[in-house]
Amino acid sequence: MYKYKIYNRLSTALSKITDTNTNDVIGYIKKDYANIITRFVDLIGDGKFFNGFKVYDNKKNLLFKSKQKSPFKYKQFVISFFNDNEKKITFEISDKSWFKSSEKIDFKFLEETYELHKNIEEWSYIINKKNDKKIAKWRNPITSPTSIYFELLDNNLKEYDLQLLGLFHTYLYSD
To answer: What is the pTM of this model?
Structure first.
């Protein structure tokens, strides 16, 4: 299981992602702004308008990047996964609910369809829709500073563990 802390919604500092079994730093996560203007607007909106994130491995190689398409419509993100082979996978996730984010959202990745299940104060899951198998889980207890937990449940996706953590963080932490 992995753990990381977020101290506030506006910080662009790297937060360490640690393995709870060994306490080793296995990566980093940070909020990302396109420019100083978006950061200023987000400061006024208490960190709720622009939600882009980056995830790095323990050597600070970029593994994940998310960018919110429009902060004023609905949750719509362009997600990019990177790996050691410099292969890039890009896809979108979109929730067209106007007032509250949906409890479930579908996305395609590696030619499979997955569903992200949102659960407040409980474990949220990514589920492979083809076989109804849970592949990862993420939990964000409502405390400050926020300690967030992530666990990969399908070892076949081990090379994408930090990218899936980034996907959860992008969609669920940006509420």
So the answer is: 0.86
CA distance 136 to 166: 12
CB 150 within 8 A of CB 136: yes
Give how far Cα 48 sits from Cα of 68, 76, 116, 124, 139, Å: 11, 14, 21, 21, 19
Return d(Cα 77, Cα 72) in angstroms, integer.
13
pLDDT, position 11: 79
Sequence-distant (6+) residues with CB within 8 A of 132 are none
Q: Exposed, middle or buried, 84 (CB in 10 Å: 0-12/13-18/19+)?
A: exposed
**What's the whole-number mean pLDDT along residues 34-62?**
82
The SS3 assignment for 155 reads helix
Chain segment 117-148, per-residue pLDDT in tens: 887 778 999 999 999 999 999 987 766 667 88
Token reading at 80: 């990019």
Tokens 């960190």 found at = 47
Locate 47 and state its tokens. 């960190």
